[in-house]
Design brief:
It is built from 12 helices and 5 strands. The chain is α+β, with helices and mostly antiparallel strands. A 5-stranded antiparallel beta sheet has the order 4-3-2-1-5, with helices on both faces. Helix 2 runs parallel beside helix 8, helix 8 packs antiparallel against helix 9 (213-225) and helix 11 packs antiparallel against helix 12. The relative contact order is 0.10.
Length: 284
């Protein structure tokens, strides 16, 4: 009899496989992040969440029948009326302090979330309904774009899907950066870039709560499963392992990180090796 594979391991295999697919499923990846955070979320719960998104898409498509399929403003208003109005999906300042606001299955349940998770919901409903939609990763605030890039309408799901003017977009960017937007900020966001940003938000939430280094650790480990992870993530994982008291594994990770950097940044590699020796000393 083969030993039972831990559920977390199964979820991570699926997460890595989906992240490496030619067209990754954004909703599934976000739900798998939720499964990492919430042990009660099982396959049935994931399937139920996906069915709910599908039903919302059917309602959106039905509501939009009187509008032109290629009219981005009509789509924006349809989604705002359904998701922001009838269903009550929106955000409020207190949502930034809750981990649930970064978990798609909890956003579907609570009808509250961070701008990026509400935007994921808007995008997944709109895409299934046949709307031309993409995410726009503004600094400090994620929104959605409907229609072609040269003739699109911006909507703010955090504000119930309110349609944004050009001035509104400039104000959102200025609030985060103190400067007007540059064209690169308005490019459509790729699926994996959105997932990375979700995980970075979770890490930022946990970083403000040192007692939740367990959350920081799994968020880093999921980030490492995405294609072409930043080398620094391995160092971050090692530091979190040491913080959790897993000194030996953390030290091995620090040494491996140092080996990777040795030919490029000798000073940083030496520092990592010193930290590895320090971690091992904590075993005595």
């Amino acid at each position: 009899m083969h030993p039972r594979v831990p559920k977390t391991t199964e979820w991570r295999r699926l997460f890595a496989a989906e992240a490496g697919a030619p067209r990754p499923d954004l909703a599934l990846l976000c739900l798998l992040i939720g499964a990492e955070a919430d042990p009660s979320l099982d396959q049935e719960g994931i399937d139920r969440a996906r069915r709910l998104i599908g039903r919302l898409a059917e309602l959106a498509a039905h509501s939009h029948r009187s509008g032109r399929a290629d009219d981005p403003r009509a789509w924006a208003l349809t989604l705002a009326e359904l998701l922001g109005g009838y269903c009550g999906f929106r955000g409020r300042p207190g949502d930034y302090h809750r981990l649930e606001s970064s978990l798609l299955h909890q956003v579907l349940r609570r009808r509250r979330g961070l701008p990026i998770l509400l935007s994921v919901l808007w995008m997944e409903v709109a895409r299934r309904a046949g709307a031309p939609v993409h995410g726009v990763a503004l600094p400090g605030h994620f929104v959605v774009g409907l229609g072609p890039v040269d003739d699109r309408v911006f909507a703010n799901p955090f504000d119930g899907g309110r349609v944004l003017t050009g001035t509104d977009v400039e104000l959102l960017v200025a609030a985060a950066t103190g400067a007007p937007p540059v064209p690169s900020m308005l490019h459509p966001a790729g699926t994996l870039d959105i997932v990375r940003r979700v995980l970075n938000n979770i890490r930022a939430w946990a970083a403000a709560r040192p007692e939740r280094c367990d959350v920081s650790l799994w968020a880093v480990e999921l980030s490492l499963l995405l294609p072409s992870p930043a080398p620094r993530l391995r160092y971050d994982r090692a530091q979190l392992l040491v913080q959790k008291g897993d000194f030996l594994v953390g030290a091995r990770e620090l040494d491996a990180y140092a080996d990777e950097l040795a030919g490029q940044d000798a000073a940083t590699a030496d520092q990592a090796r010193r930290q590895a020796r320090g971690a091992r000393a904590l075993l005595n």
